[in-house]
Amino acid sequence: MNNEFYFNLWVLKKLRNCKHWKNSVKMPTLRQRTQNNHTRKEFRQLQQQSSRQQEVIDERGLPYATNETEFPYIPSAFTAWKALFIVRLSAAFWSVISDCDETYNYWEPMHYLIYKKGFQTWEYDAKYGLRSYLYILVHTVPAWIYAHVLQPKPMFVFFSVRCILAAICSACETYFYIGVTKEIGANVGRITLGILLFSAGMFISSTAFLPSTTSMYLCMLAHGAWFQQTYALAIFATALSTFLSWPFAALLGLPIGNSLDFTYQKNMKKIGKLFLHSS
To answer: Is 56 helix (H, G, I), strand (E, B) or coil?
Structure first.
């Protein structure tokens, strides 16, 4: 153990004295770390470190490579997306419709917009006007194109919409998983990925044609962006979830707003101190 420590110390001294090392390697400044540069590369660096071989020295002073490493294994973003997409695709074909509102308030109006026939609930009646067709129109556009261009059976249109929802859900889950891994750590990121993969609730709700499902997508996208300090995307996803699908989803954006307000006040205090020192 002592030999390994002194060997690493000797290597660091040699690298420090090397001119090529000084010219090629530049440590990020505090300003660069606060501008999201560290969050964009941290996940890939952790993944590379987890699969890198470690060079150690035996009792005779001879170096050798070993696969044992202090860094845990982190599934890549593409690996996580593939695993999540397979599970969500299976939900698109095998998960049943568990809510009557999904049938009569969303699938039936979509069927009416595509084929000009279908049931209409009283909430969509012009006399009452309690529900808007905007949310249904967003989902109807790809289904209408598929139905009128290729003219398949209505059952194929139904499953195509569910497959699109499965792809969107898996992408948002992957982005959320990356954010958790960067912000909290690799161990919590792996646990989060496992819960997302084997959760029965996620299996049911991932491909449901409901506003709460869309808010779930956008909530994971917003919090993943928050963890990665992409605040513009976090605010946009929260606002889109509030106005498009579910108004109560605005409450889920309160932690993001509180964090932004705290960061703003902290930066303003720093600016004030610099102004006082300069004057």
So the answer is: strand
